[in-house]
Design brief:
- With 74 residues, this protein is mainly α.
- It has a domain of 40 residues.
- It has three helices and no strands.
């Protein structure tokens, strides 16, 4: 008896799965065909042009302390 119930559950589940697949194919057939026929958009390679401008910095003209005055002050 258990074997009969198990076989019935298995066959019912299998039939349900086949029915769902057939229903989905019937309702989404156009979309499936369109998805299979579509060509992917070409991917363009992105090129980044990076320009680094580093203007040269002039040395700062600071007033230097007179070494003689510094030595006398110490």
């Amino acid at each position: 008896m258990f074997g009969m119930i198990a076989a019935f559950v298995f066959v019912t589940g299998f039939a349900f799965a086949i029915g769902v697949i057939a229903w989905m194919f019937a309702h989404y057939q156009e979309k499936i065909v369109a998805a299979l026929l579509v060509e992917p958009m070409p991917q363009t390679v992105r090129v980044y042009n990076v320009r680094i401008s580093r203007p040269r910095v002039r040395p700062v003209q600071t007033a230097r302390a007179n070494p003689t005055r510094t030595a006398l002050a110490a």
